[in-house]
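User: Small ask, check this?
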Amino acid sequence: MAEVYVLDRYYLAITLLITVAYQLFFFSIAFSFKFDKLTDFAGGTNFIVLAVITLAFSGHHHARQIVASLFIMVWGARLSGFLLFRILKTGKDDRFDDKRNDFFKFLGFWVFQMVWVWVVSLPVTVLNSPNVTQYPQPAFGTGRDIAGVILYAIGLVMESVSDVQKYRFRSDPSKKGVVCDVGFFAWSRHPNYFGEIIIQFAIFMIAVSPAADGYVGGQAFRALYATIVGPIFLTVLLMFVSGLPLSERPGAKKRYESGNGWEAYSRYLQRTSILIPFPPPLYAPLPTILKRTIFLEFPIYVFDPAKHADAAKGQRGVEEGTHGEEEGLRREGQHDAPS
């Protein structure tokens, strides 16, 4: 099959246009019918669409192209499938409560989703492009390829399993208010984010091999290396925009002010790494400077009751939490006392 040239030799323009059209189509449905169930589905499946189209257009189906394309398709399918399943169970997405009826606010989210899909897809998009496939390709199976496959497998298992673990934990009525420290969450507070980051860097490692091994030169060489912006963008997004900042301090603040298991959650924060999985017995005694640097628990995530809590709510929450724990201990004592 001959290569298909569309607008540019890196498929940047056509993938951008497809992404914009795809997201606007689903946005029109979501806004018109106030329907939350398609938002994440549209994001995940967009990755599949771009991978399929660029692989088909390339005309060259080297093993590396197929593997990298399949990897991002499997990741996109799993992510969109899980999020669709979850939203069908919950009914609505709380993220859009202040945007659903505001055209421009709601559109803003979808525009950001366009950027997310297009940028994160760049390693596969450029790998499948005519400017890269015109060069001879190294046989699949280099050390970098193998490392990428192993990292991808680790990341996919970690993200997939931790998503299921957390969903099942939260779906159990008896676990309401209890800290989720099961499975991967015993070693990391956000193992799903860590797995997702690993996945994207793994795909980049595979995609960049033709340049790293000296088979691709010139502008295509620079273009392949430049696609590292994809996994970096995802990492920045999860660490500083929509991931950790929206869950760490706000989550701790909510627990503290409501008294909903704050003491247990505070202990969980002290013994569990925020992102990089690490054994709690080794993590807990580490100096704060190591936690704030090597383990990426930056000050922006840290909740300080004196600085960030509403004083009245905080005091009431702590008192309620303390009374709750005392009542629990009292009942346990009655239960254990001999009759």
Remarks:
- Residues 143-171 form the longest helix (29 residues).
- Residues 324-339 have pLDDT under 50 and may be disordered.
- The radius of gyration is 23 Å.
